[in-house]
Amino acid sequence: MTSALRCAVFSLLMALVPACVQAASDRATDDAFAALLTLSAPEQDTAQWDIPVPEDFDGQSETALIAYLAKKKRAGADFNAYRHFGTLLHHAIRAGKLKTAAWLLENGADPRKTLKGSNEDALALSLRFKRNALARQLQERYGLEPPAAAPSKAAPQAQGETLPAGISSEADIAAARMFLLQTSWATTSPGLTPAATKAAQDRLAKWKAFAARQPAQAMAQVLDDDVAIGALVRVHARSPRDLDKALAALPPELLKRRGAAAAAMLASLARVDIADKNPKREYWVPADSWRVLWRHVGRPVAYGESHGLAGRVQPELWPELFASGYADRDARSALGCLVNQIGAKDLQSIWPSLEAQFPDLRDVAARMVLDHVRMAGAEFCWSWNDDETAQKLSFLISRGVTGPVKGIVERDLQYRSAAFLTAMKPFRAESRPTAKPRLVEVGHKCRFTPSDAWYHELLTNATTVEGLAIETVQLIELPGEAECALLVGGFFSLSSEPTDSFTGPEDNPVPSCPDPAGGYQVLREERGHIVRFDTDMTRATGGTVLTRVRDAASGRYYYLRDGGGLGRCESRLRLPMAFEWAAAQRGPALKAVTGHAIEDVLFDQCRAVENGVYCDGIASLQFEQDAAATPPPADGFSGMDYRPFLKTYWAVRYDEYQAAILALDKPRLKTLQQGGIPGDWTADAIRRVGASTLPLAEKRKRIAWIFYDRRQLARALDSDMTEGLLDWLPREDWGPLLAVLSEQGINVRRLRQLAEEKGLSRLACDLDHAQGLICGENWGRR
């Protein structure tokens, strides 16, 4: 007896004919897609679909394909099912199989169905792929309407694209400011194509012509704004003549009012480019642009956040820079990486200016030159030219600059040239007995009181900065507060796994050197509400834990975080970074400690070791550096994932929920669910049901109760939970879970493989269909 006959007989006997019909329909649908995609599957450069060719399909033409589709229609194929985000009609349009598309339309394909995750119907796809004849047919015969047309030439243009005729209203002022702002971005964006450069120049010419036509009073109204004056400086920064003309046209009192914004903009644009070979300085902002600014805005100038500004302007300007009000005489913070990256001859040529302007230069010059072989601290400098560095060190010795440089990473010196190693010998710090640590780890005195407000905040996975969902939680102490605050963090997930699409699999590459991709905020409860404060830890890679320390010399308290978190391409060891509480507009803020005083303390207390950075007296940071050490047990003060944090601090509610699921206490479950249940609690409940000694029928009742709430089921998804279901949950109970897997677009290839290995071939096909695949299909990299 064939399998088909056995299925039919069994169905008649058990009154389950629909189950076999459905199986036949699934197979026929898969065969129909396989035949179409075999002839029309796109091949990407890096990935492709692996379509299982049906044994009964050997056609190589569109005529043969249509005949095969007709055969599968008689077998029950669903012509409006989806595979790879589209129906058969969608894929026929994409592939240019227009006869097939017309036949499908005549045989039940719905042209109004849209791509999954898109609003493109058959007409929109026809227009996108330029299937013009089919597009006309879809409009004339099926009444489809094209997507909303692009704005006509007579339609209003996008904000910032046009200038008003004159300045006679607040709307005109706003329009002129927006045009100037967008022009400033367009003219200073790096890497512009020739066409984009020409367009930016045309915009700038329009702005100049507009400004020349307006009365002086009208232009003063437009530019009496910090953003607008900044944009004006930005567009003219590279041309001292144009900048002089633009600023001269403005009233002196306006420039005095907006001078800080103008100076801050020019400071933000200032940069110096230094080539690795034949080091030569090239400044983006001409020296005369600075002189024009100083002449017009008056003194003293408030530069705002201008860290390292002296290192980004020409040395010949330093006397004028300091005369204008720039006050940073600390060589390391004022010069940034300049001394580390310029060539030896260049250092010699500007040495007199350096000594004249920076009183501490001789004390810090050696460590600045060697910054690239030290643990990274406040500055983060790179220099690959060992010969230039060796010559700079020799020059320092000739000037009587010697002395040990702290923080050298000895393991990195093995890659340096012999000349470099010889030149740096006078600067190597000798081993010294460990002094009594100045920064001493201290515990927390605050307490954390679980509340409904906290539970709701974490349960709803409220976001941190940049819209990131909370993933980590740490209890921290606010000055003078008995109740702890929470430092919460969230992170972008970067995956290099290929992703499927309607037009074929696509690689999803991760940048080789991604920027830090995490965000943090400080939360605390105030009268039943959660209030958010700021931190300077808005950019980090991976989780972080803060260690509270006390400075024995000053009595100040700091939070230290380990030196990681600067991106995967960051191979340098870093000192821990220090933060402390400071007053801010929205309340206390956890701010980074700036200046070199704390860095010098850390260099005294921390040293590079084989596995990382070791800091005497700060035990909680050490286990991360010592592979043999055992990390301390996780608790709220040492940082936790937010899921175990909820289980720990709301353990009674967690245990109640688990017990109610096992007892199928529906009234109690409804009450608990009204307050919300974390998804991982539900995943645990599913695992507990599977591991229980309950009869299978009772287990299925509890799973049916859990699966009824699709949204909660989606929150509970994890690979361990779903894989555990393979061992006991019957296939007919998987429907809600398969629907959620399909809606979430989750890659379940491992789950499908395990199902196949366990002999669950029909469930394996169901899992393929949940992914929008043909049964037995695979795809990915070549």
Brief overview, please?
By secondary structure, the chain is an alpha+beta fold. The strands form five sheets. A five-stranded antiparallel sheet has the order 4-9-10-11-12. A five-stranded antiparallel sheet has the order 8-7-6-5-15. A two-stranded antiparallel ribbon has the order 1-16.
Helix and strand arrangement:
Layout: H1 3-14, H2 17-40, E1 47-50, H3 62-74, H4 88-95, H5 98-106, H6 122-128, H7 132-140, H8 170-188, H9 194-213, H10 216-223, H11 226-236, H12 240-248, H13 252-269, E2 272-274, E3 281-283, H14 287-297, H15 318-323, H16 331-335, H17 338-341, H18 344-357, H19 361-369, H20 386-398, H21 418-424, E4 439-441, H22 452-459, E5 472-476, E6 485-491, E7 518-526, E8 529-533, E9 546-551, E10 557-561, E11 577-582, E12 589-592, H23 597-605, E13 606-609, E14 612-615, E15 640-641, H24 642-649, H25 651-663, H26 666-674, H27 679-691, H28 696-708, H29 710-716, H30 719-725, H31 735-744, H32 749-757, H33 761-770, E16 778-781
Antiparallel strand pairs: 1-16, 2-3, 4-9, 5-6, 5-15, 6-7, 7-8, 9-10, 10-11, 11-12, 13-14
Helix pairs in contact: 1-2, 2-3, 2-4, 4-5, 6-7, 8-9, 8-11, 11-12, 11-13, 12-14, 13-14, 18-20, 20-21, 24-25, 25-26, 25-27, 27-28, 27-29, 29-31, 31-33, 32-33
Structural class: alpha+beta
Low-confidence stretches: 1-21, 149-157, 623-627
Percent of residues in beta strands: 5-15%
Largest sheet descriptor: 5 strands, antiparallel
Strand order of the largest sheet: 4-9-10-11-12
| Helical content band | 40-55%
- Rg over C-alpha atoms, rounded to the nearest angstrom: 34 Å
Query: Can you count the helices?
Result: 33
Which descriptor suits the 3D outline? globular
Distance between the termini: 41 Å
Number of strands: 16
Task: Estimate the mean pLDDT confidence.
Answer: 86
